[in-house]
Design brief:
Number of strands: 10
Strand order of the largest sheet: 2-5-3
CATH topology of the largest domain: Trypsin Inhibitor V, Chain A
Distance between the termini: 87 Å
Structural class: alpha/beta
Number of helices: 4
Order of helices and strands: HHEHEEEEEHEEEE
CATH class of the largest domain: Alpha Beta
Strand content: 25-35%
Radius of gyration: 33 Å
Helix content: 25-40%
Length: 206
């Protein structure tokens, strides 16, 4: 590896020297000190980068990534730390076969050889199957049940409110809002427009 790097470095020095020489001849630059400075910088840069790579990065030992899928997050972090790897939560996802707070996937995968100190990204089970709430705004109330069922939700409280400027039976508000993540099977409350006056029945004892 070192021989290959030195060969590339020698080729780089020759190419840079030729380029700088051509520039001096064509542009007739008056300051040789500037030319020497530029040449030194171009020549020394890859040598310094190569040295840092060989001394610091390439000298790090390699370790095998353990399999932490199916472990609770603290246990997964501890197992990764035992082989000098660092854990980072990359996000949450629902996976039915694992309990909440357990690792469902990892990157890099188990069995790969990586440098010590590498970060391993962990996806953690959220514990709830959360799905986006569909938008029912402007839809007829008669379609609400089918639309919610198709998106794994159920109708919740339904209130009617007089809005002469809206079509009869149009849904004008909902909770949770469209696009929010909510547990599958949960209720969605609706506010429906009507063109007639709504009479609210008073509860007994009030």
């Amino acid at each position: 590896m070192i021989t290959g790097y030195l060969s590339l470095y020698l080729i780089f020095v020759i190419v840079i020297s030729l380029i700088v020489g051509l520039l001096v001849l064509r542009l007739k630059l008056p300051s040789p000190r500037l030319i020497i400075t530029i040449l030194v910088v171009f020549v020394a840069s890859p040598l310094l980068i190569g040295y840092l790579y060989l001394v610091y990065f390439n000298s790090l030992p390699e370790v095998i990534v353990p399999n932490v899928v199916g472990l609770e997050r603290p246990a997964a972090e501890e197992q990764l730390a035992d082989v000098d790897l660092r854990a980072r939560e990359a996000g949450n996802v629902y996976e039915s076969k694992y309990p909440e707070g357990f690792v469902v996937s990892q990157r890099p995968e188990a069995g790969r050889r990586v440098k010590a100190g590498r970060v391993v990204n962990l996806m953690i089970n959220s514990g709830e199957n959360k799905v986006p709430v569909p938008s029912l705004l402007g839809k007829p109330f008669s379609q609400a049940g089918d639309l919610l069922a198709a998106a794994q939700f159920r109708p919740g409280d339904v209130r009617w409110e007089r809005h002469p400027d809206q079509p009869e039976g149009a849904i004008i508000a909902q909770e949770p809002l469209p696009g929010e993540l909510a547990p599958a099977g949960s209720l969605v409350d609706l506010l429906v427009a009507t063109t007639v006056e709504v009479v609210t029945e008073e509860k007994e004892g009030e």
